[in-house]
Amino acid sequence: MRKPKNYKNGLLPIYLKITVDGQPKELSAKRKWDPAKWNTAAGRALGTKEESRELNYYLNSLELKVYEAKKKLMESGKVITAAAIKNILLGCDESQKMLLELFKDHNKQMKDLEGIDFAPGTVERYNTSYEHTKEFVR
Question: Would you say residue 8 has pLDDT above 90?
Fold first, then answer.
């Protein structure tokens, strides 16, 4: 939990802190909780009521996602950093392809299937669509 500068009382936002080799990264858990019902040592909500169990379940699933992100980095042979794990959790770990790149890859796949699954005219129309899209983007 983190207290804002002008905090008086009420609910506090919960943050997830990822530290790898002494380098910390934080991201919001997108939940708020009463500090009086919080176990700082465990990093979990106190109590057995439904709302406490629900929050703890959410925090456990978030922790599991961190371990899965670490496993994904290990399996792909990438360097494990707090920033890399955070990027995976936020969904920005994959490099984004541009529209024309995707279109070109698609057309290449269609060209490879020409005569098998697609007629030559279909492949030609895909190429024409690519050219029109390229002109429109420019």
Answer: no
